[in-house]
């Protein structure tokens, strides 16, 4: 390593993902190991995403991170676990022009500066931690020349936030819960790439951009401790649903996809209600959106739109094609006209048509 001052930087952009079969509940809180498999769709990288720049320099005296322009602490175990795992896999990096060579062992002595931005509300149930930790791990892996495939990187991102492991791939992604205590087989795998089903259009109706009252981490802990429905869901329901969803995705079977997606979202929120004390993530507007979509799907005779809600009131609506998406947007704007400050704004994301 040369002694003169230099900085190496990498910038990466990572989209968030939306689960169609939900992760809710951990069997190991430290390693972040789930009680069931989950399946998600990764959004178009140009829409809801995190952009992270990581830099290393001998001029830095400690690891530091800024999130949306504000410095945050890196002392928590989730950040520490990701940094440790990445550093332990770092390779040699050489820049002949700068005359700098960083050897594997040097990474333990060098410090990092990390700047991360979300282009959507943080902690409002739009999976900001998923894009955030996936982007952090991916950009660090590039900076440090980590020679691991995305599934191995996903096991590191998982230790930052469970859902983050699924954002290392595009398209449809399964997070396999794994069975090993060390979590080495709790990884994400791609089921189908982003071109496989590119008729689908995802619309996110932001019902509220406020931070949620119950974080996912504490909410799922309370559900694991108190909800009998969660036990039934994890053991009896999800394993069958995962197989059915894989089949629906493989065959681009929108009717089955919609039935499974909506039912799974509703069961996840039923688990939240079955938790003591109960957790309410959806609000009246969320319920009205569900009724609207259900009525429309029934009136058409075949499903046109799937809905799913995460740990917040915002609706993720998946239209079977662009024509349906246009009709859906018109319906949303008619029934939920935006009002200043309190309104519901609609964003079109994942328009691949
Ligand atoms: C999911 N959610 O599968 C589910 C559905 C919210 C509802 O993954 O504690 O932020 O960091 O592992 O990943 C949100 O949970 O929780 C989540 P941690 P995470 O997308």
Automatic annotation (TrEMBL):
Q: What keywords would UniProt list here?
A: ATP-binding, Lipid biosynthesis, Lipid metabolism, Lyase, Nucleotide-binding, Steroid biosynthesis, Steroid metabolism, Sterol biosynthesis, Sterol metabolism
Q: Which reaction does it catalyse?
A: (R)-5-diphosphomevalonate + ATP = isopentenyl diphosphate + ADP + phosphate + CO2
Stretches assigned to the Diphosphomevalonate decarboxylase-like N-terminal domain: 15-188
Superkingdom in the source lineage: Eukaryota
Domain Mvd1 C-terminal stretches: 202-353
The reply to whether Nucleotide-binding figures as a keyword in the UniProt entry is yes
EC number(s) reported in the record: 4.1.1.33
Described by its record, this protein's role is as follows: Performs the first committed step in the biosynthesis of isoprene-containing compounds such as sterols and terpenoids.
Q: Which family does it belong to?
A: Belongs to the diphosphomevalonate decarboxylase family.
What is this protein's record name? Diphosphomevalonate decarboxylase
UniProt source species: Camelina sativa
Full-sequence portion shown in this chain: 1 to 353 of 419
